[in-house]
Amino acid sequence: MTSPVGLKRRLSRVVTPSIRPARLVLAFKTALAAGVAWPVGHLLPGEVDDYSYYAPLGALIVMMPTLMSSLRSTLQTALGLVIGIGLAFAVILSPLPGYLSVALAVGLGVLLGGLGGLGAGRDYVPIAALFVLVLGGANADDFSLGYLVQMGVGMLVGVVINAAIMPPLWIQESSASVSGLRQRIAETLDDVALRVVDGSELHGSLDQMREIDTALREAEATASEAAESRRLNPRARRHPYDIDEDFDDLLALTRLASQLRHIIEDAQARRESLEGASDPASAATESVLRRLADLLRSWDAGRGTRDAVQEVRDAIVRLAALEREHPLSLDGQKEPTLSPDARHMVAIVERRLHRN
Fold first, then answer.
1. I want to staple 58 with a disulfide (CB 3.0 to 4.6 A). Which of 151, 160, 225, 233 is the partner?
2. End-to-end alpha carbon distance in the chain
3. 3-class secondary-structure state, position 205
4. 218: buried, middle or exposed (CB in 10 Å: 19+, 13-18, 0-12)?
5. Do the Cβ atoms of 277 and 178 come closer than 8 Å?
6. Over the stretch 122-167, which tens digit does the pLDDT of each residue have?
7. Nearest residue to 28 (alpha-carbon basis) of 168, 151, 234, 155
8. Taking Cα atoms as reference points, which of 264, 273, 259, 267 lies closest to residue 333?
9. What are phi and psi of 330, to 5 degrees?
10. 270 close to 338: Cβ distance less than 8 angstroms
11. Model confidence over 30-45: pLDDT tens digits?
């Protein structure tokens, strides 16, 4: 059963992304782009004006979290529309009845959407073909022109507004996600320490590790978006930031998470090997885990790391001595000792700190 803290964490992961400042700005710019595209579409001459309702759609589909992704989406969507419209006219020239024409256009559109490089435009190949056949009908020529031009106008408006109004930089979100991961691993270390000393089950800690794995994947995606958000972004010069540092931190945190999982599994194995007896090394194990948590917090704060490293090392020495005094085994094969994984965690943090 999920704990209240775990439930709150999951709920926060679902709700928080929709109300972050960057998301609110994106929502405002998208609404503005759609609102501007609508009257601009009406300014176009001739029968193209009749299809001005496609202009807000064009603005909507290219308003992406980064300027680079907006430009890429614009080009890919435009290419997808052209291919789809061309496909529709090829089908119109065929002698097939209507229902077969629709089926053929959609089927071929899905196949052509698989062409390499189409990206966001892949979905608009069958959509454009279907719209021309079903909505254009006997007036396919005018519809195709109006549809393509109005979508292009909307996409242009979207890109201009995205570039003009706070083109997004995801560096703060990337930094925050890395910091949050350090804090969560530290919290899990504290949780494991508490479970070790009071003799409770460690399955809840393994649940936390699964949540950390999810958070790692999300943080990697955020860092990738941050890296892309700096491309062609005029704000990037005013906000220098080395995004490679975040990627290096995430690599170290991934390794730390792996070692922490080993610690949890070994702690559970050690408990099973004791068969209900008290663990003479539990207090020393708790001390190591607490000092590791302190080290993660010092790393996150950027101060006191040298003292924190020494404290962990001293605690590991005491734990290793107790593990040697009270050796345990599982089926005569494995000794569930925690000190080697703890040493690996310290080494991972030290290597990362020395590279800064």
1. 151
2. 41
3. helix
4. middle
5. no
6. 999 999 999 999 998 888 899 999 999 999 999 999 999 988 888 8
7. 168
8. 273
9. -115, 115
10. yes
11. 999 999 999 999 999 8
